[in-house]
Write a sequence for this structure.
């Protein structure tokens, strides 16, 4: 502060200055003393009220700062998760009640201020309650409830600040009133001093006037100072001594400085708070956008998922149901939401109730397979996974589940197991039949020779014929076993399926009897297939005989053909089926039908439902083997009391397929040509050599392909025919024929085997027209087939081709 240097008079108190004036005129002393006393009390009261106003303002500002610190602490914890912020919150919260109590004590004599203080106390409590609620929100998370509490807290803070500002304004108004009151006291004192001056001495009057003028100026300056403080203007106070007015003025100036500092602090705190709120708002907006994008991704994933996804609460009511669940189970979302899960079969309800208890404990289920029911009543197999759901507080509030429809997979697994079982049995049967065929070839061949040689001994001929009959029966049985095991030689040729069916119907009429009506529905569209006609005849005959036995009281037998397409979906559900064009052969009856258990074992060898002695149990096994050997598919559709339908799908023949060439008649069985025999079984070699040499042929024999090549290379004789087994040690018949025809291009070839299928050796298949003799064979059949091959003219077809 700047100004003139104070004098001794200025350093005196007002009481001392008044006493000096009063001493001049004794008469005026009492008046001036009384007036001074009254003024002094007024000034003291004004100073007390100024101090009081400052203390009130100080408490208000402190309270505002504490509330701001508490709010900043909670918000800092929510933004960062750092609990250090909560320490500031707790410290501010403990100090706030004391500040409120001080404020109420200061304004207890002012009813208006008390009302304002009560309102501020209520707002502080509301704000602290909201901060307590906001503190319970998990940090760095976002929820709708947290956002509502945050908005309410912001509103409460603004209302609290407004109340504090209003109360501070009220105190400023009181300060102005106290200043005005001091001015009124000044006027009274002046009037009193003037009257005393008139009564007193001229010196007293002059002293009183001088004193009055000095006081007036000081009071006027005090008023200016007070108004400047109220209006917030800057000013410089002059040093006017050390009396009470000077002290009052100094107090006002200091109060102004403190109020200015507190106001600046409040402004800075508000600016900082607004910046924090802005940053938090930006963070919340970004979080909302990320949450929206995540929700879009989640919705897209669940909506496009091929798996059924559903959720239930702790009471078992459905709370979520995705489109795949509708597709798999049939119920729509509107039909299941809020209701118990409808897909659990009645017999599994008790187990599902136990699952709900596990769900309430937060347990999960992984990969369990259970039967479930669709809306249409159909039963399906599903694989189930579950996981618990939690609410915002971490408590379990439900379970989400994923169901995978594994019905098709289970069917494929069952087909595969059945196919593997049939394949294993077929391999065993084929292996046994192969070895047995070699034995039967020797038995039946020598038996036929014995019959011719023992013609003069009828009793020996009868014994030999009985042996021959038993051998032929055994050969037929092994043929059936080879057919079931797909190891019977198939000599396919291009045929019209309709013509094949028409020819077979003529035989069917003789078998089924007059009480069965035969209905044919043949597709007029050309449906050519590459099959062995004899095998297909056998398929039709076996199925017709089974249908006749199922219709003991008569009925209707329907035979149908059609051209159809099997798509990838069908191929995925049936092992070994390739997508493409197929000819359908369907044979249906109106008989007794079959149970599911019977259908599962239908193609097993030696399985039959007929009485003992009425069937071997190989009929349908043979059908299955022939269809599979023809690269086809067979399906059975039957229910008890509703008849049975067999559907056979045979691949449509390629457009470039050609018909089998016509064979020449064999004529006389004797011959003089040279035949090279390659057979690893010694007994069969001797049998062939004996039969052919008796018919006049020159016979060279070898036990394996290497020996046969040596014979062919060492002899000068013309070799007319190579008669070779297919499967042998040190090579196979196909390779031997190819190597030998390189040395002797004119050489003709005939194959024989008792262990042959369409994969005879190395993945080869016989071409149409290739000469083949199936073991076991009779001597006559051998002689006739050799004669046919030697008599054939033109180029012999390639013996085999690889099948891809």
């Amino acid at each position: 502060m700047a100004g003139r240097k104070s004098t001794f008079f200025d350093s005196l108190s007002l009481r001392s200055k008044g006493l000096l004036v009063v001493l001049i005129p004794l008469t005026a002393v009492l008046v001036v003393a009384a007036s001074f006393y009254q003024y002094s009390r007024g000034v003291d009261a004004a100073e007390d009220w100024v101090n009081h106003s400052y203390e009130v303002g100080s408490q208000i500002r402190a309270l505002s700062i504490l509330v701001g610190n508490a709010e900043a602490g909670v918000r800092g914890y929510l933004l960062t998760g750092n609990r250090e912020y909560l320490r500031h919150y707790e410290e501010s919260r403990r100090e706030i009640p004391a500040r409120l109590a001080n404020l109420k004590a200061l304004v207890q004599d002012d009813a208006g201020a008390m009302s304002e203080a009560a309102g501020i106390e209520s707002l502080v409590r509301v704000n602290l309650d909201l901060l307590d609620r906001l503190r319970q929100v998990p940090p760095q998370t976002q929820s709708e409830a947290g956002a509502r509490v945050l908005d309410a807290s912001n509103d409460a803070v603004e209302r609290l600040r407004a109340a504090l500002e209003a109360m501070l304004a009220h105190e400023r108004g009181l300060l102005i009133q106290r200043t005005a009151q001091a001015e009124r006291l000044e006027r009274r004192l002046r009037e009193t001093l003037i009257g005393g001056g008139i009564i007193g001495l001229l010196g007293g009057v002059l002293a009183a006037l001088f004193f009055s003028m000095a006081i007036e100026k000081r009071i006027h300056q005090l008023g200016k100072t007070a108004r400047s403080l109220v209006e917030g203007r800057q000013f410089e106070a002059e040093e006017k001594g050390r009396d009470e007015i000077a002290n009052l003025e100094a107090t006002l100036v200091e109060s102004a400085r403190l109020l200015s500092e507190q106001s600046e602090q409040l402004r800075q705190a508000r600016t900082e708070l607004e910046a924090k709120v802005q940053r938090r708002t930006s963070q919340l907006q970004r979080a909302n956008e990320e949450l929206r994008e995540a929700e879009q991704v989640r919705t897209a994933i669940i909506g496009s998922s091929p798996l059924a996804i559903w959720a239930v609460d702790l009471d078992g009511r459905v709370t979520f149901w995705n489109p795949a669940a509708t597709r798999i189970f049939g119920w729509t979302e509107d039909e299941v939401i809020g209701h118990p899960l409808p897909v659990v079969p009645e017999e599994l309800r008790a187990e599902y109730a136990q699952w709900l208890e596990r769900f309430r404990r937060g347990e999960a289920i992984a990969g369990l397979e259970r039967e479930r029911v669709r809306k249409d009543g159909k039963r399906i197999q599903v694989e189930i996974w579950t996981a618990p759901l939690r609410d915002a507080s971490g408590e379990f509030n439900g379970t989400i589940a994923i169901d995978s429809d594994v019905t098709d997979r289970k069917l494929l697994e069952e087909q595969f197991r059945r196919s593997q079982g049939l394949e294993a049995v077929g391999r065993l049967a084929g292996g046994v039949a192969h070895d047995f065929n070699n034995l039967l070839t020797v038995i039946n061949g020598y038996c036929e020779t014995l019959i011719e040689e023992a013609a003069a001994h009828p009793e020996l001929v009868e014994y030999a014929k009985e042996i021959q009959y038993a051998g032929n029966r055994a050969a037929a049985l092994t043929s059936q076993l080879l057919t079931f095991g797909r190891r019977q030689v198939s000599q396919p040729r291009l045929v019209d399926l309709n013509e094949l069916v028409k020819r077979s119907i003529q035989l069917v009429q003789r078998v089924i009897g007059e009480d069965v009506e035969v209905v044919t529905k043949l597709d007029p569209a050309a449906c050519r297939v590459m099959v062995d006609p004899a095998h297909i005849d056998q398929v039709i005959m076996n199925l017709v005989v089974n249908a006749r036995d199922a219709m003991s009281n008569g009925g209707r037998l329907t035979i149908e053909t059609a051209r159809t397409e099997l798509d990838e979906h069908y191929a995925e559900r049936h092992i070994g089926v390739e997508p493409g064009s197929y000819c359908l052969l369907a044979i249906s009856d109106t008989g007794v039908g079959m149970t599911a258990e019977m259908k599962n074992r239908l193609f097993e060898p030696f399985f039959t439902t007929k009485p003992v002695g009425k069937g071997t149990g190989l009929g349908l096994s043979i059908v299955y083997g022939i269809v599979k050997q023809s690269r086809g598919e067979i399906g059975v559709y039957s229910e008890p009391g509703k008849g049975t339908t067999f559907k056979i799908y045979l691949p449509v023949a390629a457009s470039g397929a050609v018909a089998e060439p016509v064979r020449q008649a064999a004529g006389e069985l004797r011959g003089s040509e040279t035949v090279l025999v390659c057979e690893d079984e010694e007994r069969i070699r001797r049998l062939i050599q004996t039969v052919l040499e008796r018919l006049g042929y020159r016979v060279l024999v070898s036990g394996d392909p290497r020996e046969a090549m040596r014979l062919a290379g060492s002899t000068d004789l013309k070799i007319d025919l190579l008669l070779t087994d297919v499967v042998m040690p040190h090579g196979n018949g196909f390779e031997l024929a190819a190597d030998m025809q390189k040395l002797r291009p004119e050489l003709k070839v005939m194959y024989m085997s008792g262990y042959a299928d369409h994969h005879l050796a190395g993945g080869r298949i016989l071409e149409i027209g290739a000469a083949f003799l199936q073991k076991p064979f009779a001597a006559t059949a051998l002689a006739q087939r050799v004669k046919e091959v030697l008599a054939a003219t033109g180029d012999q077809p390639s013996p085999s081709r690889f099948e891809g």
In short: The two ends are 113 Å apart (CA to CA). The mean pLDDT is 77.
